[in-house]
Fold this sequence. Notes:
This protein has helices at 4-32, 39-46, 50-56, 60-85, 91-108, 110-120, 124-130, 133-160, 168-188, 207-223; strands at residues 190-196, 199-204. It is mainly alpha-helical. The chain has a two-stranded antiparallel sheet with strand order 1-2.
Amino acid sequence: MATPSRQSAAAARRRAREQEILAATRRLFDESGVRDAQIDDIAKAVGINRAIIYRHFSGKEELFALAVVSYLDELRERLEQAAEKAAVDSPTERLRAVVTAFVDYGLEYPAFVDCAQTLMRRPGPELLEQVSEGALFRLGRAISTCLRTLTQTLDEGAKSGDFKVEDSVLVANYMYASGLGALQLARIGLLVKESAPGIPTIARIDGDQVREFLTTTAVALATGR
């Protein structure tokens, strides 16, 4: 029977290997994009057989989920810093600062947008089948703590009378989901519109336009104007 010290050492080695695999996944996502990253590529980057990855993770969907956790932890720090810097400003300016930080992070890390949207497209029961309960808990905690800064900003604005928000949690989740969609537009860089009735044409859109749109939309949603 393994002694407690041996069990503890084995658990530490397992955690270290998991972190190594997740770090390799994150690097591949950032360098090559989400769609082009394969389990074999991740295994090669770590220097292990792909079978070992499946000993630690249920599959690529779980790696997606835990990669999103990594991104969200970084994003949370960005949002907190933005809110802190704008602490003496009006609620409207604090909200603009927080949303700007979200947009800037998404523009810097497009793989975050891809990963987050990929997971959001999965029905809940399907995610439960493909991702372990522990990984889903970590993902949920990362999302909720990341959105806390936005929720608090909305609550403070509502308390001061600047915002007309009854359910800050719902509004924050809506801003997060719609923000991911708008960031995808920035990544594509194209809009479809009509040059005349029934005649489609392509227009350009860039990150600056998306940033201004999302910040303006967030303020309008919060203030009810």
